[in-house]
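Now for one protein, fold included:
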Amino acid sequence: MKGEFQIGHIARIPIKIHWTLVLFLPILAWLIAVQLEHVSDLPFVNMDPTPLLTEYGRIYAGIVVAVGLFVSVLLHELGHALVARRENIGVEQITLWIFGGLAMLEGIRNEPRSEAKVAAAGPAVSLALGAMPVVFLLGDPGPWVTFPVIYLAYLNVVLAVFNMLPAFPLDGGRLLRAFLAMRMPFGQATDVAANVGKGAAVLMGLGGLLFGNLWIVFIALFVYMGASQEAQGARLFDALDRVRVQEIMDDDIPGVEPGAFVEELVPLMLRTGRTGFPVLDGDRVVGVVTLSDVQEVPESRRSLVRVDDLMSRDLVTIDAAAKASEALQMMQEEEIGRLLVTRQGRLEGVVTRQGVMHAFNILQTIPRSELGELEEERVVDLDASEWAR
């Protein structure tokens, strides 16, 4: 997610904050402060807020509850992340933003039982936080402690209940997909859960408009867009699962020598239409050089700087027999646009994000049954030029 910055780690998991949260947190604190006198009207909040209805009391209550809410959201996402780790699912990071939190997980596709456990963990944490008053307020410490604890407990119960709605991509929608995926293909289960999520979002949005609650409308829009993106992503990976990297890679990539000068790369890029090349020392790949590397060198110095002075030596490779979906996932995780394709350690070609998406566009025109026949017959000799025809 663009526009985020890291604030630390918890259990070796990077914790990041999006700029939208920085803007929204003061607004949330203000909303809580101005509505403080109505708090006693909420379910389960049986207290007199009068001692807090001074100027400084409102500021205190607004800040403590607003910050406490997003700490609660962080704990909710940590619940997802820690259970994911126990299920041997990688956790890339947790991001807090205007609509709550997002735990970015790796490799949860086609693991419905694990997804069900991970999805249920977040609401379970929120419900546990909702039980805080039972343990914490036995001694009645006064309104300055009682109010934030009870109000945050109430908000955590609301958070748990809302997230359990069967509206993909909320936790309840992910539970729905997990249960469906135990009985049907993962992509089909995602489509069903996404359609349920879209329907719930439409009803939520209409309800928000009917009662004049724009915040509900914004949340409904987020749910609808999230369901659409998840469905598109599932279709993408489902299609790419059926082809191998060697079927979509470019095996006609010219290599450049480490001792070549940068000025030689520009005409090579213009002539071939490519923006990245493997750097070869004999038949051994020692690096990768791209257009962004060239752009970092002033034009006046390109005749003096050699390729091995600016090439990337951190090689990210994939086996030619791997699925195309694995290639796309690696590119997303590494935030790169191309992978070197190898077979038994020998360079076979290059697969690019553009090439993967081009293959997906073609695969969408082929019936699923025909794709299955291709996979069974092990038709693995297609190269990029054959796809292009």
